[in-house]
Each structure stands twice: as C-alpha cells, then as structure tokens.
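Design job #97: recover the sequence.
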C-alpha cells in the first residue's frame, strides 16, 4: 500500500489528486494510500498500455513532484526520475523499453579465427564448440565459438524420432532377406501370470528366438535348459531349413550376445553352438558388445511383445 504526504501548503491540490486517482486520506497519519504498486499495475494493465501508464506517471511527477508521485505509484524515486528524464529528452518515444541486446563485445573473435573455426567445423561436422576450442587451442569461450558456427549455418537440426525411424526403414530395404538374424533367449520363469501354469503342466523354462533383420520373421523353440546344446540344436534346425530352401548359409550373419549359451567367455574352448555356426554351415557369428542389449533390440522387442500379448493375457488350459 503506497502513501503520498499531503504537505503543508498543498492540501487542496493533493486532495484533488487523491480524488482523481481513487485513493483515500489517512486521517491519523496524514497520508493518502493506494492499493497497487507500480510493478503490480504493470502486470495488470498489460504490455500495450505500459507506455500510457508511464506517461501518466511522468505527468503526475511533473505536476506534483517526484517524491509524492513515487509514493503514489508505490515505486522508488529513482524509477520516477528515470522516466521523467527520458521523457524530457526523447518525449513519448523515451517511455519504451530499451533493447537489452549487446551492442559491442569486449573480446570479439577476429575474422581469421572465425574462418579457422568454420574450416574445422566443416572438416568435422560432429565436433562441438568445446571440442573445437580444445583442438585449436583458442582463448575464446565456447559460447562465442558456437555463435560463429551458428552464424555460418553449420548447426545441423536435431533429427526427429519419426525421421530416424524412416531412415532405418530405408537401411533395412537395402539388406537381403535372411541375411542377418538376431538370436536371444527369454526366461519364462519371471512371468507371474504364466508361472503357475508352467509349474503345474511342466512347461519349458526358456524361449529361444531368432528374428530376421529385414522382414522381422520369427523362428521359435522352447527349451528346458539354457545351454549351448539347446541353442546349437535350434540353430542347426534353422540353418538346415534355410539351406533346403536354397539359401546359402555362408551369406548369413548370426548375431548374439556374450552369454554362456552361445560362447564360452571364461576360456578359449569352442562351444557346440559355435561349431554348428562356423564349422558346419560356415556362417558368420557376430557378437554384440558387453552390456549393450539394444544391439539386439529387434528380438528383445519381440520378447516384450509376446509376454504382454500372449503369456500374460492368454492362459493355458
């Protein structure tokens, strides 16, 4: 709540001012009070009428004084004096907000360095401002270097998910059918809705899946054990079936993780699965990096789908 001191010789003038601006006179303290502050009124009236509001404040300040006006508008004397000064210099144009954009830079990158940054960025599109600063050993901030890259139009737009999905579809189209399979094992013992039926009817504990990278075709097999013997039998059936249909196994890539059911990570002994793939059919066995399950995302997504839409919803009789 703001106040305006009535003064000693200007009581009539101030009473007129009080009635005009809708405030009331405190009979005890001799001050006129107003409900809203200057900043509150700015928010209420909106950006379009701020200039008009400031003009009214300046006119009141010139008429009744800066300090009484500051009390009336619930702002500081410095603020009122600032707008009065701008109004006296530039009239109504001085009541607009000034641009906060920087007009000069104390440490500006010279033209030769800018060309060097642009050349480095074009040679290495994946390098950011921090990497370029480190490689070129520049004393400028990474923000300034990023500005140079941006002004040169070398900032690549961020790819959208749908665009990446479309790009992957184009990559898949270039692959041959049955040229790459992702193979993995799914536990059937960690599905609560299915466990009681599996236990009562002695169903298998594991699901072995192979998914073609291009078409998404799925080949399944159930097993009671998680071993290289079980996966070897599965891959033997799969490759022999493809060979019977005229597909050369030597052109096929078998992609798996580093589990014991596929390889022997502790020593150099060749597992039965590797013998079937490499020696019998002379196919290529590709191992994904450790702790990178997303490399087998196609077959992993199938395992999630079959769990949600088959093992959970459909109960075996």
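Job complete. Output follows.
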């Amino acid at each position: 709540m703001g106040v305006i001191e009535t003064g000693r010789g200007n009581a009539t003038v101030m009473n007129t001012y009080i009635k005009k601006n809708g405030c009331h006179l405190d009979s005890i303290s001799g001050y006129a009070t107003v409900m809203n502050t200057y900043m509150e009124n700015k928010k209420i009236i909106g950006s379009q009428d701020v200039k008009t509001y400031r003009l009214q404040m300046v006119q009141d300040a010139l008429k009744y004084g800066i300090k009484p006006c500051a009390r009336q508008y619930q702002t500081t004397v410095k603020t009122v004096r600032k707008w009065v000064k701008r109004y006296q210099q530039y009239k109504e144009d001085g009541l607009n907000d000034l641009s906060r954009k920087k007009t000069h830079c104390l440490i500006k990158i010279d033209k030769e360095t800018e060309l060097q940054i642009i050349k480095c960025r074009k040679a290495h599109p994946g390098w950011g401002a921090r990497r370029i600063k480190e490689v070129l050993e520049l004393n400028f901030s990474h923000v300034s270097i990023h500005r140079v890259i941006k002004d040169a139009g070398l900032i690549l737009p961020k790819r959208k998910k749908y665009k990446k999905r479309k790009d992957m579809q184009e990559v898949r189209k270039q692959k041959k059918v049955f040229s790459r399979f992702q193979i993995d094992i799914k536990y059937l013992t960690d599905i609560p809705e299915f466990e009681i039926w599996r236990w009562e009817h002695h169903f298998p504990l594991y699901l072995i899946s192979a998914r073609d990278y291009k078409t998404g075709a799925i080949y399944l097999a159930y097993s009671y054990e998680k071993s290289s013997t079980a996966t070897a039998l599965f891959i033997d059936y799969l490759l022999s079936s493809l060979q019977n249909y005229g597909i050369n196994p030597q052109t096929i890539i078998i992609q798996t993780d580093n589990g014991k059911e596929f390889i022997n990570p502790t020593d150099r002994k060749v597992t039965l699965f590797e013998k079937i793939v490499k020696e019998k059919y002379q196919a290529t066995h590709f191992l994904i990096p450790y702790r990178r399950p997303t490399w087998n995302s196609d077959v992993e997504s199938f395992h999630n789908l079959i769990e949600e839409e088959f093992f959970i919803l459909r109960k075996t009789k």
